[in-house]
């Protein structure tokens, strides 16, 4: 039997599974099945009423049936599909073709009844047409399903077989099952559906039983059936519900994947390559922030926008999002040659940006260079300035206070002063939670930059500061570090088992920056809702589970210079005022006199000329009393 099936498949598919059956032969095959359906109906009639039809009538009617179905097949092109991949759409097209053929036969029967009485036997009676159509539809559908099954069972070349459970027996469950069946790179064996709804358990979907989570999600069941993968097929789950299922699967050693929301499906259909691996973002304990952006569009549309630090992780995402709001021009400034080249390649050649028709300029320049920055401002006269250029690596800046102050403080001052001089409407500074009660040089320099911009009062320019915590995937964040360490086989390094951080995604952070800038007034400092803090040790454990490399260890290395166990979004002397956006709060902060701030910065500039790190840091501590060094050589200045 198996040898016969193989020979049949070779006839249908050719010797190589990559060869498709010619469309002409599929059309001929379908027409033969239609004639066979007619013969079966005639046989049933002959059995019930012997000698009820003459040979001539059978021949004439078979010809009319053949022509009607042939015309319907040609019009609907039902023969275009590849038999080995037949799916719901192919069957739907066959059904439409059969119904269209039935209409042709009805119309033909009606016409000959009216005008040519002697041709009545050329078309079957109405009830026979119904029967023939039903039989043809049934045979055509079954033939495709059988051919598909033969191909999948015996002839599809796959590298491996994966035993899978699908979590979710709703609408997305069977769709996921069908998508996996179409995958030619891997043979998926659906062991079971899992669902929490009691009314669904015990039933089956396409022959696969639906079981409860308690019955399936245990080592005994998974080992018995060799299950290695769980696919979550409930796109409507809340983040908390999804995390519970993911964590359960990871604890059982499963490779966990998920079906994306239906809005992301291509042509409203799901394919196996759209089924995603679980990302660490899915395990952070907070729902993604989604905002309306009509006010952002009003803010950006038709404006000249400048982004400093444009090639960085935050700056580049701001550029991507700004382009969606049709600015008059987007000017991107960064000192890093290679990253800005990469950004240029992306925005100029990749969709959707390449077709946006937004004038864009990529400029290699350093915010420390006042003459060069003035030249840029004079040429473009930006109306909105997003200042993301900054040094942000805490341990490195602890080693190089001179550079940290020069870029983060005086680079910010240069850009802010030029924004005033060239009458920009808004200057938006990207700050950090490390500026609150700073314990390191980097945080202190960002706080200095906040103080300076907050003290500016210009007639034409509004100064706005946005402050948020760590962003996933940004340069220097812990996630890329862990990924590199996993790629090298470990261990994952964590500075302290109790260290915690706030996290949000880069698109979320930049979306909130644009929203805050649209709603902000002069001198505002906005704080973003970062959700619950995440313990870095727990994050490392989850990333190990996600990678499947359970043998990787976690190594505690001790706090780095300037690092603290937790970050704060607000200083103790500050509080927040709610805005009409729940995820954005306005910080009520101390006000600073511009003359005093200017004098302090001049003193700090003089300290820079000494090139003495301790003198530079001592002056910052004098200006920012809450700056108390932690685990740093500069701690002696606090005694």
Structure description:
The protein is of the alpha/beta class. The chain folds into 3 domains: 154 residues, no CATH class; 118 residues, NAD(P)-binding Rossmann-like Domain (Rossmann fold, 3-Layer(aba) Sandwich); 340 residues, NAD(P)-binding Rossmann-like Domain (Rossmann fold, 3-Layer(aba) Sandwich). Helix content is 47%, strand content 15%. The strands form 5 sheets. The protein has a 9-stranded mixed sheet, sandwiched between helices. A 7-stranded mixed sheet has the order 3-4-2-1-5-6-7, with helices on both faces. A two-stranded parallel sheet has the order 14-17. Helix 15 runs parallel beside helix 16. About 2% of the residues have low confidence.
Total helices: the number is: 21
β-strand number: 22
- Which range does the strand content fall in? 5-15%
- Envelope shape: elongated
Specify the helix fraction band: 40-55%
The overall average pLDDT, rounded, is 82
Strand order, main sheet: write it out.
10-9-8-11-12-13-18-22-21
Instruction: Just give the CATH class of the largest domain.
Output: Alpha Beta
Features:
nine-stranded mixed sheet; alpha/beta; Rossmann fold; 639 residues
Task: Quickly describe the structure.
The protein is of the alpha/beta class and 639 residues long. It contains 21 helices and 22 strands.
What is this structure's SSE topology?
Layout: H1 2-13, H2 23-48, H3 55-76, H4 88-115, H5 126-155, E1 161-167, H6 172-181, E2 187-194, E3 204-205, E4 208-211, H7 213-216, H8 219-225, E5 229-232, H9 239-251, E6 255-258, E7 276-277, H10 294-300, E8 304-308, H11 313-323, E9 329-334, H12 337-349, E10 360-364, H13 370-380, E11 384-387, H14 394-399, H15 401-421, E12 426-432, H16 441-455, E13 462-468, E14 470-472, H17 478-487, E15 492-494, E16 500-501, E17 503-505, H18 506-519, E18 524-528, E19 534-535, H19 536-547, E20 554-556, E21 575-578, E22 584-588, H20 594-609, H21 613-623
Parallel strand pairs: 1-2, 1-5, 2-4, 5-6, 8-9, 8-11, 9-10, 11-12, 12-13, 13-18, 14-17, 15-20
Antiparallel strand pairs: 3-4, 6-7, 16-19, 18-22, 21-22
């Amino acid at each position: 039997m198996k040898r016969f099936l193989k020979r049949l498949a070779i006839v249908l598919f050719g010797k190589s599974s990559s060869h498709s059956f010619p469309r002409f032969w599929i059309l001929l095959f379908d027409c033969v099945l239609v004639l066979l359906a007619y013969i079966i109906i005639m046989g049933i009639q002959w059995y019930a009423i012997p000698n009820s039809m003459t040979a001539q009538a059978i021949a004439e009617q078979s010809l009319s049936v053949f022509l009607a179905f042939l015309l319907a097949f040609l019009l609907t092109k039902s023969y275009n599909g590849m038999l080995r991949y037949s799916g719901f759409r192919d069957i739907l097209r066959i059904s439409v073709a059969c119904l269209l053929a039935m209409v042709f036969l009805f119309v033909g029967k009606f016409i000959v009844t009216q005008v040519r009485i002697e041709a009545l036997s050329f078309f079957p009676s109405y009830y026979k047409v119904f029967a023939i159509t039903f039989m043809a539809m049934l045979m055509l559908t079954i033939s495709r399903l059988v051919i598909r099954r033969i191909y999948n069972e015996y002839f599809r070349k796959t590298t491996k077989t994966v035993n899978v459970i699908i979590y979710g027996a709703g609408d997305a469950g069977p769709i996921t099952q069908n998508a996996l069946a179409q995958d030619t790179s891997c043979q998926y064996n659906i062991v079971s559906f899992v669902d929490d709804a009691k009314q669904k358990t015990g039933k089956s979907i396409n022959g696969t039983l639906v079981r409860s989570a308690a019955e399936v999600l245990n080592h005994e069941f998974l080992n018995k059936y060799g299950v290695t993968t769980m696919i979550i097929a409930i796109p409507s789950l809340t983040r908390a519900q999804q995390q519970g299922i993911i964590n359960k699967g990871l604890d059982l050693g499963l490779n966990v994947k998920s079906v994306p929301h239906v809005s992301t499906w291509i042509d409203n259909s799901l394919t196996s390559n759209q089924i995603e691996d679980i990302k660490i973002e899915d395990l952070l304990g907070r729902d993604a922030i989604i905002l309306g952006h009509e006010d952002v569009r009003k803010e950006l549309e038709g404006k000249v926008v400048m982004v400093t630090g444009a090639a960085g992780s935050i700056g580049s995402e701001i550029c991507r999002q700004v382009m969606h709001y049709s600015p008059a021009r987007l000017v991107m400034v960064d000192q890093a040659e290679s990253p800005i080249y990469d950004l240029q390649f992306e925005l100029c050649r990749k969709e959707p940006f390449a077709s946006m028709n937004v004038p864009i300029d990529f400029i290699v320049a350093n915010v420390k260079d006042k003459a060069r920055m003035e030249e840029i401002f004079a040429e473009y006269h930006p109306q909105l300035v997003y200042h993301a250029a900054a040094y942000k690596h805490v341990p490195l800046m602890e080693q190089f206070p001179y550079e940290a102050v020069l870029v983060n403080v005086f680079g910010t001052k240069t850009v802010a002063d030029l924004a005033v001089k060239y009458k920009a409407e808004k200057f938006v500074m990207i700050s950090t939670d490390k500026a609150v009660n700073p314990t390191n040089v980097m945080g202190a320099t960002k706080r200095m930059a906040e103080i300076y911009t907050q003290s500016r009062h210009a007639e034409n320019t509004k100064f706005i500061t946005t402050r948020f915590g760590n962003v996933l995937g940004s340069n220097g964040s812990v996630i890329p570090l862990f990924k590199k360490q996993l790629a090298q086989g470990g261990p994952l390094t964590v500075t302290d088992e109790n260290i915690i951080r706030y996290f949000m995604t880069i698109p979320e952070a930049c979306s909130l920056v644009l929203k805050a800038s649209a709603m902000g007034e002069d001198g505002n400092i906005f704080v973003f809702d970062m959700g619950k803090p995440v313990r870095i040790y727990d994050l490392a454990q989850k990333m190990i589970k996600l990678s499947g490399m359970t043998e990787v260890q976690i190594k505690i290395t001790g706090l780095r210079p300037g690092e603290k166990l937790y970050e704060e979004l607000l200083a103790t002397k500050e509080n927040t005022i709610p805005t009409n956006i729940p995820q954005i709060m306005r910080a009520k902060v101390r006000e600073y006199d511009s003359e005093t701030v200017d004098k302090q910065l001049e003193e700090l500039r003089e300290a820079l000329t000494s090139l003495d790190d301790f003198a530079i840091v001592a002056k910052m501590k004098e200006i920012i009393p809450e700056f108390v060094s932690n685990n740093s050589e500069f701690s002696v200045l606090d005694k």
